[in-house]
Amino acid sequence: MFKELVIIIFVFWGQYNTSFIDEKPTGSVLSSFNSEIDVSVEIKNDKIATIIKSEDKTNEINKDQFYSAPALSQISNPNYNYFKVGAKSAIAANMETGVILYEKNIQEKVPIASLTKLMTALIVLEKNELDSLTIISKNAIASEGDKGSLKVDEKITVKNLLYLLLVNSSNDAAVALAEHIAGSENEFVKLMNQKAEELGLNNTRFINTTGLDLNNKNNYSTAYDLVKLTKHALDKPLLCEIMRVQNLNVFSVDKQIKHRLKNTNKLLGKLPGINIISGKTGFTNKAGECLILAISHPDNNQKIVCVILNSEDRFGEMERLVNELTN
Prior knowledge:
This protein is of the alpha+beta class. It contains 9 helices and 14 strands.
């Protein structure tokens, strides 16, 4: 067995390169995070460790801060049983460096179901109207799918609607927020697509605020784009705080209506030793089971975002992926 293996990958701005074949740990770099970076993947203590080198010294990582990844045998032994997920697409990326630690079909456009609501929440938060009151319309209540137990003409704050949106994955909350911010869901969707373009989400398109599949059309994105979207969301402390809530009661303005919320993310509190920063679930028949999970690595607290799309077991697969990356 080789005692040391060094792979140098050159990644230039605007390009995307993969160092290993699909479904293997990689040393490729998210081009939007860093420009003109050399990535060295070294074997140390029989583990793959990622080191970033750049002419800009502020982007360098202390060489002792390594991410654990699958062992050298995965590269040197062609008969090794590579770690795989059954999901249609998946990605895990280090937010501090942009290095992709795991990938599968990350540029394939797929329906994203309620992962859509991450963008919905971002637009709402940027309008900075958290304490303003919303009156729930009949149109919002008529939304299909997951409900937030809202009532017609109920008065509730934008902040509480965000809790319904991201904890309960409420579709009626999504429409109510859109109507409050932009006057209609269609106008709000224009803001979502403008933001997607601004963030460089080149393979993402929204047709609604909920993620529901409508008339053979659906919101779509890629695992790669969703990592970039999540990176932006991680800069919003309130969104992370909301998405970590397991159970909560929120009320209408007059306190007469109580909404009992239970997070749809079943991994909260279920991964010993792992600090979950945020996460969002999604499901439709076309999208399958979807999940975004942002964690901090237990060894060095660097942020890792994992995305699983169109899975038959999103929580089981995400747990195995996180364990593979952190053990």
